[in-house]
Design goal:
single chain; alpha/beta; Metallo-beta-lactamase, Chain A; eight-stranded mixed sheet; seven-stranded mixed sheet; 9 helices; globular
């Protein structure tokens, strides 16, 4: 079954506690779990179905309790296990039409596809979700904000630049997950072929540690509680370099700062 979403928003009750766990982040697979206590979503599913189930179980989450999978773009490190998980647990997949067309050879049969459009809000129960355009070399890539009551989570990885529009969407978030893909010196001196280096540094590639720091400097505010640096390159970055680049810009806030890992789940973050 395939249908477009009703753009109307439901009435949102008083804010519940929101929780987020980074299940994996990086070029070898991405997945984020968020929940408002009643509705649980998987944002991207870029690990194998078995590995996604293992990581969910490691955080005490039954995959059958998920309500939906939401896809940001069609690259394999964001969709690898989405089809398997959707079929195994009868989960709807929320995706843009263009991304679905590009992803279907890998997703294969999906019982329920829910189409959303970038720049147009949609709802999954109490979650009010806004997908916004990103500059990346995919067919229709989006970042997301997830709101429930007066609380807001922002996710923006896989983008080459963060213009004013992206900053506008990400303002006033309680939790921010932003890309810090590479250290510029490590990338330049590293083993990648020159065309790959150029792609990563381009406007449709990935944010560097310096780019991430500049973005956070524009987004910090008194209500910012948690910042997660995500999609770090295993070859062209280190946790220490990413944290060092971002730490001082957040010194005058109460926000915690952490790095999402490729090989293990992150800690629970609550809002």
């Amino acid at each position: 079954m395939k249908r477009d979403l009703d753009p109307q928003e439901p009435e949102v009750p008083a804010s519940p506690t929101l929780s987020l766990c980074m299940l994996a982040s990086g070029s070898r697979g991405n997945a984020i779990y968020i929940s408002d206590g009643e509705t649980s979503l998987l944002i991207d599913a870029g690990l194998s179905g078995i590995e996604l189930e293992r990581r969910l179980a490691g955080r005490g989450i039954d995959p059958a309790s998920l309500d939906a999978i939401v896809i940001s773009h069609e690259h394999n490190d964001h969709i690898l296990g989405a089809g398997v998980l959707s079929r195994r647990f009868n989960l709807p997949v929320y995706i843009t039409r263009e991304t679905a067309r590009a992803a279907m050879p890998k997703l294969k049969k999906i019982e329920t596809l829910q189409y959303f459009e970038r720049s147009r809000d949609f709802a999954i129960n109490r979650w009010r979700i806004h997908p916004f355009c990103l500059s990346h070399d995919a067919v229709d890539p989006v970042g997301f904000t997830f709101c429930c009551g007066d609380k807001k989570i922002g996710l923006a990885t896989d983008l080459g630049v963060a213009p004013a529009m992206v900053r506008e969407h990400l303002k006033d978030c309680g939790i921010l997950v932003v890309e810090a893909n590479h250290d510029p010196v490590m990338l330049t001196e590293g083993p990648y072929p020159w065309p790959v280096k150029q792609r990563i540094k381009s406007r449709t590639g990935h944010l560097s540690n310096d780019d991430s720091r500049a973005l956070l400097g524009r987004l910090k505010h008194p209500g910012l509680t948690h910042v997660v640096l995500a999609h770090l390159s295993l070859e062209n970055n280190t946790c220490e370099k990413a944290l060092s680049a971002a730490a001082d810009v957040l010194n005058d806030t109460r926000a915690t700062l952490s790095v999402a890992r490729q090989d293990c789940c992150g800690e629970w973050l609550c809002l």
